[in-house]
Structure formats: structure tokens, C-alpha cells
Amino acid sequence: MRDVYVIGAHTIKFGKYLDKSIKDLAANTVIPCLKEANLDKKDIQALWFGNSAWGYYSSQDCIRAQCALRPLGMEAIPMTNVENACAGGSTAFHHAWMGVASGLYDVTMALGAEKINHPNKMKIFAGFLSGLDVENINKNMENMNIFSMTEQDKKNMRESVAKYSALAKKEKSKKKKKQSFKEKFNEYYDMFTVYLHLKDTLGNETVSKLRKLMGGDHSPFMDVYAFAARQHMNKYGTTFEQLGIIASKNHFHSSLNPNAQYNFLVSPEQVLADRMVSWPFTRAMCAPIGDGAASAILCDGETVKKLGLSSQAVKIRASVLGSGRERSFDDIDIGERLSKIAYQKAGLGPQDMHFAEVHDATAYGELHQSEALGFCKEGEGGRFAESGATKLGGKVPINISGGLESRGHPIGASGLAQIHELVTQLRGNAGPRQVKGAKLAIAENGGGALGQEEAAMCIHILEAPSK
Questions:
Q1: In angstroms, what CA-CA distances link 440 with 294, 426, 460?
Q2: What b/e sequence results for 215-234 when a residue is b if at least 16 CB atoms lie within 10 Å of its CB, and e otherwise?
Q3: For all residues of the chain together, what is the average pLDDT?
Q4: What is the largest CA-CA distance in the chain?
Q5: DSSP string, 194-211
Q6: Residues 3-33: pLDDT tens digits?
Q7: Confidence band, pLDDT 50/70/90 cuts, at residue 428
Q8: Which three-class secondary structure state does DSSP give residue 103?
Q9: Pairing of strands 355-357, 107-114
């Protein structure tokens, strides 16, 4: 296997792009990425395209890469369409790496583009069902009973809400006006259209059960993540306040990142006073809905020399793609299992990593991955974050981009946005959020849920250019 380098990495600012198409978003990252690598589109020998929702929202179920890139004049080359839920972008990157490492290609590109925002809010949340085993959705819903809160959980939630209720009331007083009749009518109409679609595909009885499961504006994933967080709290003494510190820290990081969806500060107290989504998660602890695109160009060592790009060539020390497995809650999980493989391939360990980007659909996701990647012992993730170790300037800064919680989470683009942050930091180009002396970094990106863990996951370890 040949050594592989990233010579171009780019992301657009994540956010809301209702007036843009996937083709627009793709063009807005591909063109700058090519420019950074001083390449022309004809120099790309193969491309992998990560996207999850284009078919669901716009019926573009097939040939997505080919449709997205032909307007740019990119055609004829091998293009592979990648769908791996939230791990789609990093899976595209893995295969672009494999194409170069194997010697099949010298220059490849990975691209992720996604539009999740939609005028019909109910359609957005119904779309998250595709990250589960839909054929066995009834069995999955029965199993969701294990994620229900105990009486002690409910007591803990009431006490915490009451503790921060004064600030919560103050925050609520600033918020939205009453809906007009037209707005209410449109909301009910949207719900009805989603109901009809789900009824045709899943059946009336199943949809009735789903309505109870998906009450409010959150996906079933939030309940699964919340259960895992409560288990951790009960077993190790992790606190609601520690989760608030993590979310606040990521808002601080994203305030330094012009590409982040959120660029404002949120104090730990404001995080804790925000609207409850699924105990112990408030809205500020959860990744927002967002649109975006990101890309990377990879090549072999000889091509780096030929192009004269050694000063910006970030080496890929390890690229690992794996799938989840059936296991109990107490068994080693996918993050720990795959990170050990990545460390072994790179000849490194967690103690060698200067910073990390991890998949934090919720604040607990970051806490858990800080343990799974070996930055602290199991059960110590909350205290590790509380100590300041994961903040810029700390022992192992995590999610300096703001993470999914604040940078945003346009499904197919998220993994490549992580790669962009690693590359930017390792080149020393991150400005006010720069990690001093950063030479080695790791990215973890998971997707979907199957059983007790993510259905898919990628781990990447990158190394700074030789100076």
C-alpha cells in the first residue's frame, strides 16, 4: 500500500440553504478545493460522493454524483455514490484513500453534499427513520421501551429543570410570537402529507405507533442517545452540568470558526436552561438541522513532489471503516474497537494525538468518544471535560471546529468537514482556534443506529506536513 496525502480540503459554511440545490453546494466546495490543490477538474481520476437525503427530499435516488458534477464539466471518470448515513462523507474519504493507496489511481476526490433543511419540518424528522432498520421498525419500536425513563430519571429531570427554571423563563420571554391561523394550517397540512407517505410505506398501525415515539421535534436517535447518557450518569456519576460544559465549550469553539453554522457563545447555564429534548439533553446539547458541502483531494507521494505541494500535503496515517455488531451494552463498542485498529495501523496511541474531531450528535457523544478513543478512562469523560482538558489550550482539545453540535451536521458532508478541520489545523492555518504544535490528529465519524451502536463508523489519523 502506498502512502497517501491530502493536498486539498475545503468546506462551505454550514447553515440553511433553501434557495440552493445540491449541485450548487457541490460546486461551492469542489471549485475552491481544486484551486487549493492547484489542479484542474480533468486531473481528478476518480471520485466518491457522500449523500443521504437527496433521494428522500427531491427523488434523486440514483446517479447522484453524476448529476451533481456534470454541470461542472466533471464527467467520464469513475464516480461512486456513497450512502452510509452520518458516516457518508468519511466513508467517501476512506474509499478515495483506498483508490490511491492501492495504486489504482494517483489523484482522487471525496465530496459530501447535503440539504436537510426543508419547509416541511415534519418531513425532516421522519427522514431520520432511514438511519434505522426500517423493515424491522415495529420490533425496533418495541425495543425502544428499554430506553424509557425510570422514576428516578424523571425525578432527576424535574429537579434539574426546576434548578434552572428561572433562567429558562427569562430566555423564553424573548422567544417566538404566536402562530397565525395560516401558519397553523400549513403545519397541520405538512403533518398530513408526511402521514400519508409513511402510511403508504409502513402501514397505518405502524405510523400510529411512530407518532407516540416521535412526539415533539426530535428524532428517535435522541431517545437512544439519552438512554446511553442516563446509563453513564447512573453508573459513573456523570452530571447534567458536565454535559452543559461540553456543549458550551463547543459553542465557544464554533464562535472562532467562520464555517460553523453557529457563531455565538452560549454559557453552560444557558445550555442547561434551554428546552428539554430528551432527558438529559437540552436543545443546545444537540446537533442542529443544517445544509452544507465539503471535499478533499488525495494523492500519492510522487504526485505531491511533482506538484511541489509538500508544504501542504497532510499524510493519512490510518483510514479505517467498520460496521457495528450485535452486542450487549457492556461489551466493547465500535468506537473503541475501530480506534484501536487505527492506532495500530498508524503505529501510534491516544497519547500521541494533539487534538480530535468526534461525532457529537449530542454532548454525550463527545463525552463517550473521549473515553472510546482512549483520552481518558471509561467513566471519566464528564470530569475530563469539566477539567478543561478538551477545550482549546487543554490537554486534548476536542471538536475545535464546534463539532456537530455547533459547526452543524449536514449528514453526508459532516465527515469531510472533520477532515477539513484536521487538515487546516495540521497546516497551522486555523487562526484564533489554532491548536499550538499540532502534528497528529484523529477524526471519528459514526452513522446510523443498529442495535446498541452505530451501524457504520470511520476513524482517520492524519499527520502534519513535513516542514
A1: 21, 7, 11
A2: eeebbbbbbbbbbbbbebbe
A3: 90
A4: 65
A5: HHHHHHHHH-HHHHHHHH
A6: 999 999 999 999 999 999 999 999 999 999 9
A7: very high
A8: coil
A9: unpaired
Please compute the mean of the pLDDT values over residues 276-286 and round it to a whole number. Answer: 94
> How many angstroms from the chain centroid is the CA of residue 28?
20
Element (H, E) at 91: helix 88-101
Q: Round to whole Å and give the CA distance between 374 and 337.
A: 11
Name the burial class of residue 195, with classes exposed (0-12), middle (13-18) and buried (19+) by CB atoms within 10 angstroms of its CB.
middle
> Taking the mean position of all CA atoms in its chain, how far away is CA 260?
13
Q: How far apart are CA 200 and CA 71, in angstroms?
A: 35
**Which pTM does this prediction carry?**
0.90
Residue 217: pLDDT over 80: no
Q: Are 356 and 443 in contact (CB under 8 A)?
A: yes
Q: How far is CA 378 from CA 232, 239, 341, 363, 370, in A?
A: 10, 15, 18, 16, 9
Q: 25 and 115 in contact (C-beta within 8 Å)? A: yes
Residue 259 burial by Cβ neighbours in a 10 Å radius (0-12, 13-18, 19+): buried
How does DSSP assign 167-234, residue by residue? Answer: HHHHHHTTSPPPPPHHHHHHHHHHHHHHHHHHHHHH-HHHHHHHHHHT-SS--HHHHHHHHHHHHHHH
CA count, 13 A, side-chain hemisphere, 405: 37
Peptide bond into 280 cis (omega under 30): yes
Tens of pLDDT, residue by residue over 29-53, are: 999 999 999 999 999 999 999 999 9
Residue range 331-365, pLDDT digits in tens: 899 999 999 999 999 999 999 999 999 999 999 99
